Amino acid sequence: MTALADIIGAEVARDTFPAANAFSEHLRAHYGQAAAAVIFYGSCLRQNTDVGLLLDFYVLVDKYGPALRSVPSTLGARLLPPNVYYHEMIFEGRIVRAKVAVIAVNQFLQNVAPETFASSLWARFAQPTIILYARNDELRRRLVAGLCSAVTTMIARTRPLMDQPFSTRDLWVRAFAETYRAELRPERDGKGAELVDGELARYNAVTSAVLGDPSGGIYGAALLHEQNTAARSWWLRRVQGKTLNGLRLIKAAFTFQGGLDYAVWKIERHSGVKLDLTDAERKRTLITGARLLLKTLRKGGLR
């Protein structure tokens, strides 16, 4: 059985496609000395292309002030991390676009740890990730440890829900289903299975590193009292997660270029609640952002 740190350490050091590497350099230049690390994840990583897609990055910074150069943005990041921004660059004669989340190193590590109740970060970074830049070996080691923590936390939070003997695939499909329900992202049926099946060998390896090798490919079911406790925790996580996710979408209206339209699109895509914006509303970012949250609440978008 391979140690989890070895698996994740090799995973984050993989090569990726040129546009992603170039964008990492663009982000390092944009955030300057404040940039401590650049992490690449998401659909473009899985598909190994950015064509027709939006790259996903996390930029980890030492302090928000020097990185964001704005008091309101700094305050927002400290209170409700991360801040999300839109970036684009020209690469090989075409426009490459990215959604970039900025978060402090210490907040990132806190939010992938088992002490953090909200699933947003540890669920996201339990998935395959590449560290495209880390300032030094010590930071890279800390990030690998944090990503290992995300995997172990995801498994620990999901395993008690399993009321029948289960395979690694069963565990992770259930894990993704629960985390989608805890955000404004009720993905299409089969999305979790698609993610797991696309990287099944990887999920088998990390699960064996955490739980040990399964007997005949099957792990034992959780005890009834564990199931009940876990079910209550996930219900609370859904309430908390959807509320925080809604607030982050509203905050994105102030940081993301075309942020209000992005927030409306995201809410409709992930909750089914359709909201229309006028040109006048787009000009009143603060007022419209607050109204957007209230409308979403009234129409059940944060249930």
Structure description:
The chain has 303 residues and is α+β, with helices and mostly antiparallel strands. The chain has a single domain, classed as 2-Layer Sandwich (Beta Polymerase, domain 2). Helices cover 57% and strands 13% of the residues. The protein has helices at residues 4-12, 18-31, 43-47, 64-68, 71-79, 105-111, 120-124, 137-158, 168-181, 191-198, 200-211, 224-255, 259-271, 279-283, 285-298, and strands at 35-41, 55-61, 83-91, 94-104, 130-134. The protein has a five-stranded mixed β-sheet, sandwiched between helices. The longest helix is centred in the last third of the chain and has 32 residues, at 224-255. The termini are far apart. The model has no long low-confidence stretch (mean pLDDT 88).
